[in-house]
Design a protein that fits this description.
The protein is mainly alpha-helical. Helix content is about 60%, strand content about 0%.
Length: about 100
C-alpha cells in the first residue's frame, strides 16, 4: 500500500485537509499545521495531512521543527503556579462564568 492509500482499504487519500481556496498544497498544509499537532483535526483531515507530509519533504521538516518546539516548551514549562495565584485565577474565572 502506498502513502496515498487509506489504511482501511485501497481508496486513494486526498493529500490535504479542507479546501485549499487558491493556496498551494504546502501553503494550506502549513496553515493547518498547528491543528494537526494539537490533534484538532477530524480523522479524515489527519489522514490527508499525513499523506501530504509523507510526500513533501519541506512540510515534513516544518512539522518536525514545530513538534520539537512544542516538546521543548512542554519540558521548560513544568513549574506549577503558586497555590494563591491558582486560587485567585480560579475565583476570577468562576465569577466570569457566572456572569455570562
Amino acid at each position: 500500500m502506498n502513502a496515498q492509500e487509506s489504511s482501511a482499504g485501497t481508496e486513494p487519500v486526498t493529500p490535504i485537509p479542507h479546501e485549499t481556496a487558491g493556496q498551494t498544497e504546502c501553503e494550506h498544509a502549513l496553515e493547518h499545521l498547528y491543528e494537526y499537532l494539537d490533534s484538532e483535526m477530524t480523522p479524515d483531515d489527519e489522514r490527508r495531512m499525513r499523506a501530504h507530509v509523507a510526500h513533501c519533504s519541506p512540510c515534513l521538516a516544518e512539522l518536525s521543527v514545530e513538534e520539537l518546539v512544542k516538546q521543548l516548551v512542554r519540558r521548560s514549562c513544568s513549574e506549577r503556579a503558586p497555590e494563591t495565584l491558582r486560587a485567585r485565577i480560579h475565583q476570577q474565572l468562576t465569577g466570569m462564568a457566572v456572569r455570562s
